[in-house]
Amino acid sequence: MELSWFQRTYLLSTRKNDGIVDRKLEGVIYMRIHTERTLQLPASVLTIGALDGVHLGHQTLISRAKERAKELEVPLVVYTFDPPPRVYFKNTLLLTPLTEKIKRLRFLGVDHVIVASFDADYVTRGASSFLDELTDLNPLEIWAGPDFQFGRNKEGNINTLRERFTVHVLDPIRCDLGEIISSSRIRTLMMQDMLYQAERLLGWQTLFHDSKEDKYITNK
């Protein structure tokens, strides 16, 4: 199968003998990128969400899922959307373009990322269609936030997921001021030019940038 421009650009490694190893080689973390309905796995741990900003709450969610994937000796898969649903429906501020989101997920040690094109066709998919797609990943566990909804007219939710899968829900993460860390909160801060406060909730600092690679640390 011929790879799309997106896949050619961000396909960072292939896994030999069906084994994805979360590892670093000379500072590079290897990860594969897929469009929806193209990946099948014998087993996985799955995280689902818009993940706009890949903020501290998202980082905690991915970290917990990564720990479980390591314990279960299966790959960690992130299923995300481009654009994020809130951006698509409400035209809100996009915190991280897809290319930046991919870089941050790679930094966090994700093995596979599935990017669903959230468009007019995608929003007509029913909840059962989404569940069938997830079944192809054979998730031993699914990790998500408490407000995750899916399917046409938001007909699916965490309880729907639990009808088929083992699901872990991460409680909201709060900052040191006691406020819930969310993409919506960060957007509000950015629109108010409160960039320092927004950066603290995002949890990222760009240490170095060139045409090849961004170097990050996190503020966790």
TrEMBL record:
Catalyzed reactions: FMN + ATP + H(+) = FAD + diphosphate
Enzymatic class: transferase
UniProt key word Nucleotide-binding: yes
Pfam families assigned to the protein according to its UniProt record, in alphabetical order: FAD_syn
Single annotated GO MF: riboflavin kinase activity
One BP term from GO: riboflavin biosynthetic process
Swiss-Prot/TrEMBL keywords: ATP-binding, FAD, Flavoprotein, FMN, Nucleotide-binding, Nucleotidyltransferase, Transferase
InterPro entries on file: FAD_synthase, Riboflavin_kinase, Rossmann-like_a/b/a_fold
Coiled coil: none
E.C. numbers: 2.7.7.2
Protein's pathway: Cofactor biosynthesis; FAD biosynthesis; FAD from FMN: step 1/1
FAD synthetase domain mapped to chain residues: 43-184
Gene3D superfamilies (UniProt xref): HUPs
UniProt similarity note: Belongs to the RibF family.
Protein's name in the database: FAD synthase
Protein source organism: Bacillus methanolicus PB1
UniProt lineage: Bacteria, Bacillati, Bacillota, Bacilli, Bacillales
